[in-house]
Amino acid sequence: MGGSTPKQFTSLGRAPVLVHTLRALEVSSVEAIFVVVPPGRVRWCRQKLIRPYGFLKVRAVLAGGASRGESVRRGVERVPSKFDFLLIHDGARPLVTSSLIEQVIAAAKEAGAALSAVPEVDTVKAGTRGGWVHRTLRRDRLWRAQTPQAFRASLFREALRRASREGYDGTDDSSLAERAGYRVRVVEGDPNNIKITTPMDLALAGLLLRGKKS
Length: 214
What we know:
Layout: E1 11-12, E2 15-16, H1 17-26, E3 33-37, H2 42-50, E4 58-63, H3 68-78, E5 85-88, H4 98-111, E6 113-119, E7 125-127, E8 133-136, E9 143-152, H5 153-166, H6 174-179, E10 185-188, H7 199-213
Parallel strand pairs: 3-4, 6-10
Antiparallel strand pairs: 1-2, 5-9, 6-9, 7-8
């Protein structure tokens, strides 16, 4: 995104990106929310976002790590053992719907692990390091992973331990479960559930948000 403000704290409409995300979780069946933010932003997040916007389900705001995987690990460590399922969602996906959250939770309760994903619409090429096409992948079997992703807590904690032992830090959480030998159910996601990564993403999210309210 550029600039000094982390993307999840950037303004989107009348509220920061993270506020929109938390609103969807707040009205879902999720019982407790643990927010993981960049180190140095914990107090700011509590005072400027959690308290002013009145999020009742937020149990803690935690400092993340140097990587996404480490941040997830720190968040999971703070979740009490009484919770049987974990749902992980990117703070920078502010257009997630409570309906999608519930679908992923239901799938995880049935299968043990589930993620939201959207079908790939482009033709995807596997290439070589020299810049040549190696092969064309079958589009009908390709999905673009999103969050939320949900897991039986015992399953995901075991996947985290194995990943830590092997020095693996995946780009998404379901890859840890896959690597540990667990099957992951795919729930068809929402194309509007975009992740804010660039200024163009933020502009698009603004347009989608205004369309949602109109």
